[in-house]
């Protein structure tokens, strides 16, 4: 039942099986796994009834720490990114996390503090959507220029700070786009790039800025 439910869940979210380069027959394995997903079907009425019976047995091997990791992972990646959520919960297999997730979202309204939990998850999902929107806007803006590091024009309006020049802002924005806006620890890497950039060799202000300042600027 679990495997069938996992396959159908992946079908509903349009999951595409990645190719494992370590396997000698990687293409064949990928094709077969994708076929299972594409041909999967939801649980029948009898299977759903059996699933409900099994659910009443509970998750006795999940503790408060596991639950908190699961909630934080939903906040970090969004409720639909089950693969990354599964990797974030220590000591649990992907199958266990997927099964737990299915039960959680089916019965979460039974929790006393569900409003607080949902607010936490939705705040994280809002941040994810904001990053996606910013990345799309950045992609469009950068694509307008053949040499964005030199040509990018920045519209400041009335919000331009006094500390950074347009050259510095242009470098920060273009380098952030080059490294990947949604990359983990990208602002720490951005700060290191600034320190190594020859054009800022004697610019002690920008070289001394923290990663958080660079994050606010961008």
Automatic annotation (TrEMBL):
One Pfam family recorded for the sequence: SLIDE
GO cellular component, one term: chromatin
Main location: nucleus
GO biological process: nucleosome organization
Record-linked CDD domains: SANT (cd00167)
GO MF, any single term: nucleosome binding
Domain SANT: 57-109
Keywords: Chromatin regulator, Hydrolase, Nucleus
Compartment(s) of residence: Nucleus
UniProt record similarity statement: Belongs to the SNF2/RAD54 helicase family. ISWI subfamily.
Listed name of the protein: SANT domain-containing protein
Source organism per UniProt: Micrurus surinamensis
């Amino acid at each position: 039942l679990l495997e069938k439910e996992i396959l159908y869940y992946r079908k509903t979210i349009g999951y595409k099986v990645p190719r494992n380069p370590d396997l000698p027959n990687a293409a064949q394995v990928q094709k077969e796994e994708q076929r299972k997903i594409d041909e999967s079907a939801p649980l029948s009425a009898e299977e759903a009834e059996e699933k409900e019976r099994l659910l009443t047995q509970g998750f006795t091997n999940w503790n408060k720490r596991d639950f908190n990791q699961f909630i934080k992972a939903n906040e970090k990646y969004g409720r639909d990114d089950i693969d990354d959520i599964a990797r974030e919960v220590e000591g649990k297999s992907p199958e266990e996390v997927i099964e737990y997730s299915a039960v959680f979202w089916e019965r979460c309204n039974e929790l006393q503090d569900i409003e607080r939990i949902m607010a936490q998850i939705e705040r994280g999902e809002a941040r994810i959507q904001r990053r996606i929107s910013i990345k799309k806007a950045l992609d469009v803006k950068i694509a307008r220029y053949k040499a964005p590091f030199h040509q990018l024009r920045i519209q400041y309006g009335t919000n331009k700070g006094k500390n950074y020049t347009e050259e510095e802002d242009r470098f920060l924005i273009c380098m952030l786009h080059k490294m990947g806006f949604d990359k983990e620890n990208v602002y720490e890497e951005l700060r290191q790039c600034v320190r190594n950039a020859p054009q800022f060799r004697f610019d002690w202000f920008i070289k001394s800025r923290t990663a958080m300042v660079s994050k606010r600027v961008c």
